[in-house]
Design a protein that fits this description.
The structure is a homodimer of 148-residue chains. Chain A is α+β, with helices and mostly antiparallel strands and 148 residues long. The first copy, chain A, has a single domain (7-131), classed as Nuclear Transport Factor 2, Chain: A (Roll), CATH 3.10.450.50. The first copy, chain A, is globular, with a radius of gyration of 16 Å. The longest helix of chain A has 19 residues, at 7-25. The first copy, chain A, has four helices and five strands; from the N terminus they run H-H-E-H-H-E-E-E-E. Chain A binds chain B through residues 1, 40, 42-49, 80, 82-89, 91, 93, 104, 109-111, 113, 115, 117, 126-127, 129, 131-136, 140-144, 146-148, and chain B through 1, 40, 42-49, 80, 82-89, 91, 93, 109-111, 113, 115, 117, 126-127, 129, 131-136, 138, 140-144, 146-148.
């Protein structure tokens, strides 16, 4: 179990913070820089799998950034980070807030899991999984209003 | 990067297979046995976080098992497993099929990410994240009909 003063945990925390800052600034180039070349995402939006070509393409995430009028605030809560050798994972909740270009106010809690590898001495995200649960009552509704 | 003949990868594959078999047999005790005592799930159904008390409680998963008339087949597709020291992760798609007690036929593709730790010499799941994406068109519909 990694201690809080573990330098790998600190580096991974900094990498995840780079992503948070990139969302806030809607900086597509910085956002995709946290990923390894072969990273694969399971994201809030379809498709089932975001392949590495799209994950690493600034234009892909820019299309989403362009739907926001405000900065995109995504604040991590209760993140657990574990490291072994050149492999690590992190998971916790994210609280995303802001205003879309159509005026919609976003106030969304979702779950985030990141899997990381150290490549050539640098930690990179190889897999990110973001989601909300859905109702099991047959209405097939994504639960976008849950709070922790 | 772990090689296919890596013994840790083989052990983790066997652990995940134990879970698959437990679903098929609706064997709640076996299903919860793959988890560490402090495991936390982000699952298809709410709440946002399934805490360790529920993750490790056979009665909790049994309630879900009891909604199925058939065995629960959940077949992994394209699973990537990486190991570093006592830390590992695995991610890929799952194809879940079967029949619920109300006659509903389930044919669901979802995304699954597992985070693992070796505890006292034995690999255990410390975190599992299962999900489908949702529509971003304002209808807030969980996408239960996507195919890879």
């Amino acid at each position: 179990m990694a201690k809080p003063d573990n330098p790998d945990v600190a580096q991974i925390g900094a990498l995840l913070n780079t992503f948070t800052t990139a969302l806030r600034n809607k900086d597509a180039k910085s956002a995709v820089s946290v990923y390894a070349d072969d990273a694969v995402d399971f994201d809030l939006a379809p498709p089932l799998i975001i392949d590495s070509k799209r994950v690493r393409d600034p234009a892909y995430i820019q299309t989403w950034f362009d739907t926001w009028a405000s900065p995109i605030e995504s604040t991590p809560h209760g993140v657990t980070i574990r490291v072994g050798g050149d492999i690590a994972f992190a998971y916790g909740l994210q609280h995303m807030t802001g205003t879309k270009t159509d005026g919609e106010k976003v106030d969304l809690w979702f779950r985030a899991t990141a899997c990381l590898e150290r490549r050539n001495g640098t930690w990179k995200v190889v897999h990110m999984h973001n989601s909300v649960p859905f109702t099991m009552d047959g209405s097939e509704r994504a639960l976008l209003d849950l709070k922790p």
